[in-house]
Design goal:
This protein is α+β, with helices and mostly antiparallel strands and about 170 residues long. The protein has one domain (about 35-165): Chitinase A, domain 3 (Roll), CATH 3.10.50. The protein has helices at about 5-25, 45-55, 100-105, 120-125; strands at about 60, 65-70, 85-90, 95-100, 110, 130-135, 155-165. Strands 1, 2, 3, 4, 5, 6 and 7 form a 7-stranded antiparallel β-sheet that branches. The longest helix has 23 residues, at about 5-25. The N and C termini lie far apart (about 50 Å). Belongs to the FKBP-type PPIase family. GO terms for molecular function: peptidyl-prolyl cis-trans isomerase activity. It catalyses: [protein]-peptidylproline (omega=180) = [protein]-peptidylproline (omega=0). Its EC number is 5.2.1.8. It comes from Niabella drilacis (strain DSM 25811 / CCM 8410 / CCUG 62505 / LMG 26954 / E90).
């Protein structure tokens, strides 16, 4: 093996990595600044939504997840790596709907539990297959400060979810 050839490959690899690092540091001047919100900052708005909607919610004061189990279900409980089939409707706290499996895939949407928003991951663990839960998520457990989600960025969200199927 020629040591010069090996060194050239190493230098070429380092040059590529350095180039990628520089590109990754370039700031997009058109990107809107986004500051993550602490979950507690959404609580007043969430509590008002619960009062106005006559929801009886349990809550976790550590992360401000709020939920109401409508039907506990009788099947399998989803685990961290489960694939779940769900029917759901998502709403802003103004009541405006922003997403629904009922219109996109009436038979249910399929997700890997460890690949979805944290609030769903935490909430779906509270029911079993066949169950139904209402989740009220602070923005930190929803889409957080991720500009890819546009108007859903830093918004607390409400979901009504039916857990159709669990595959472990």
């Amino acid at each position: 093996m020629n040591p010069l050839s090996t060194n050239k490959k190493i230098y070429a690899g380092l040059a590529v990595l350095l180039g990628l690092a520089i590109i990754g540091c370039i700031k997009d001047e058109n990107a809107a600044a986004c500051e993550p919100k602490a979950a507690v900052s959404d609580t007043a708005q969430m509590k008002k939504f619960i009062r106005d909607s006559a929801i009886t919610a349990d809550s976790n004061k550590a992360n401000w997840l709020m939920w109401q189990v409508m039907d506990a279900g009788t099947g399998t409980t989803p685990g961290p790596n489960s694939q779940v089939t769900v029917k759901y409707m998502g709403r802003l706290l103004t009541g405006a709907g922003f997403d629904s499996s009922y219109t996109k895939s009436p038979e249910g949407a399929v997700f890997r539990l460890n690949k979805i928003i944290p609030g769903w991951y935490l909430g779906l663990a509270k029911i079993k297959e066949g169950g139904r839960i209402k989740l009220l998520l602070p923005s930190a457990l929803a889409y957080g400060c991720d500009p890819r989600y546009g108007s859903l960025t830093n918004q607390p969200l409400f979901f009504d979810i039916e857990l159709i199927k669990v595959e472990n």
